[in-house]
Q: What sequence folds into this?
């Protein structure tokens, strides 16, 4: 990612840099009054702050945060593998987790655009703002739920798993209610299917439904103290009247991805996994393998529920579709079963040698890449470096549109020196510290080549100004604070 255009999304993009903005604001001594979306980013902020404590700077922290997120995914897959196949040798469970993890990394390699709103959603796991912990919670929840469908499980073990699942759903709902659509609804649907086919009992399906419901209720109640931070909650995103438009939007995004060779490979791989999940689900229900049935069922049910649900609600945003990729990838933890049965014509001992060899090569490669990333962490984008150097030396405050200023603002020593405005130069209170707007007048405007500059306030058309070029960015400096930031609009355009 660091070697492709995707690096812009990882280091400088509008929403990705939120953890750095929060930390920068705290370190600058600003009062904290944030305007957030329906997502509170509580676990994500915790991980970012923990990594930032190591002192590698903003960009270095983003790199380490990405590594930590992927390692947490491996840990979640390892737990999933152990819960779905507890009776298998430990080595097979490890290999299963490694196969699923390797496939995730492989898909990440195929994603290289700078756009955060494309269907290249697997690599969003590397960020601290695109629902990475919700993905992890989904993987963990599937793993915890699979043994709960076993009719004759130990009551004590069942109670422990139910409490763990309830806690994960509650915490995930607190930070991002999207977990209910990604995991709770499809999980309940899969259990209902298994109960209908008498693979599990309706009593166990009901108990799971109760656990999910209680966890969701606790999570939603826990959001009440954070109400002042949430400027747009879940129901505000639902626009059923826009369902047709949403469907067309996602079709276009899908066709854009499929039009590239890498995108064709990625989508073909995921579709193959979903079709395989349907086959495994049918065979496991026939054989009474309930744990496998839950895992395979989620691998096709979660994508189905998410696609139908999001289109029906008129939601626009490819980041909402991450279960289409991550739920089927979880199916790969079962690959050692195929190897053990020689389904693929590979002897298990040889397979272990092959996996060990690949792991060794990966470790050596990781060490070499770490040296490259160290240099990358110290190299700030020159355009952003130019902007920040000028703003810091000016000791003044300016404004710009949301999409333009977020990258430079994240790397400023005092992020309050850049205030985000909408296209009409009014306050744009979205994923920002509302304390910024205590400053009513600014002296310069930051614009860039990707997005139009905001309209200037009335009365400054003939005021003297100077222009400073910083690559893709342009600073229009009025020297004195003659630019008045207008009030927040009820329906602002960023």
A:
């Amino acid at each position: 990612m660091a070697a492709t255009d995707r690096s812009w999304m990882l280091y400088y993009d509008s929403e990705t840099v939120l953890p750095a903005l929060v930390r920068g604001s705290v370190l600058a001594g600003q009062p904290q009054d944030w305007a957030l979306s329906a997502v509170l980013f509580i676990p994500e902020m915790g991980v970012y702050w923990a990594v930032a404590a190591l002192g590698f700077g903003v960009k270095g922290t983003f790199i380490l945060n990405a590594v930590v997120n992927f390692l947490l995914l491996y840990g979640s897959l390892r737990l999933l593998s152990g819960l779905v196949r507890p009776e298998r040798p430990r080595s097979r469970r490890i290999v299963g987790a490694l196969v699923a993890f390797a496939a995730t990394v492989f898909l990440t390699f195929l994603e290289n655009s700078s756009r955060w709103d494309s269907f290249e959603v697997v690599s969003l796991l590397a960020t601290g703002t695109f629902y990475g912990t919700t993905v992890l919670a989904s993987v963990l929840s599937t793993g915890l739920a699979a043994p709960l469908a076993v009719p004759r499980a130990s009551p004590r073990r069942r109670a422990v798993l139910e409490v763990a699942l309830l806690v994960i759903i509650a915490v995930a709902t607190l930070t991002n209610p999207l977990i209910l659509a990604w995991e709770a609804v499809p999980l309940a649907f899969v259990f209902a299917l298994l109960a209908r086919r008498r693979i599990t009992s309706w009593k166990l399906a009901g108990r799971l439904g109760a656990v999910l419901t209680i966890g969701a209720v606790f999570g939603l109640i826990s959001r009440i103290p954070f109400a002042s931070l949430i400027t747009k909650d879940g129901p505000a995103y639902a626009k059923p009247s826009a369902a047709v438009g949403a469907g067309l939007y996602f079709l276009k995004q899908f066709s854009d991805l499929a039009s590239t060779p890498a995108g064709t490979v990625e989508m073909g791989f995921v579709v193959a996994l979903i079709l395989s999940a349907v086959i495994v689900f049918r065979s496991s229900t026939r054989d009474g393998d309930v744990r496998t049935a839950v895992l395979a069922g989620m691998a096709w049910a979660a994508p189905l529920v998410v696609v139908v649900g999001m289109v029906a609600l008129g939601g626009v945003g490819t980041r909402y579709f991450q279960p289409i990729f991550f739920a089927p990838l979880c199916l790969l933890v079962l690959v050692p079963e195929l190897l053990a049965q020689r389904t693929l014509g590979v002897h298990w001992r040889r397979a272990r040698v092959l996996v060990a060899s690949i792991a060794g090569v990966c470790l050596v490669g990781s060490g070499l890449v770490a040296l490259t990333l160290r240099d990358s962490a110290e190299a700030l984008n020159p355009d952003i470096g130019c902007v920040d150097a000028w703003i810091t030396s000016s000791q003044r405050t300016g404004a710009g549109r949301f999409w333009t200023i977020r990258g430079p603002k994240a790397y400023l020593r005092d992020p309050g020196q850049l205030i985000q405005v909408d296209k009409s130069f009014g306050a744009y209170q979205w994923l920002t510290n509302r304390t910024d707007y205590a400053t009513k007048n600014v002296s310069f405007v930051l614009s860039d080549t990707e997005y139009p500059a905001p309209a200037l306030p009335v009365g400054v058309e003939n005021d003297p100004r100077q222009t400073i070029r910083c690559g893709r960015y342009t600073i229009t400096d009025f020297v004195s604070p003659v630019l008045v930031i207008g009030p927040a609009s009820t329906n602002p355009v960023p």
DSSP finds 18 helices and nine strands in the chain. The mean pLDDT is 92. The longest strand covers residues 444-448. The CA atoms of residues 208 and 385 lie 52 Å apart.
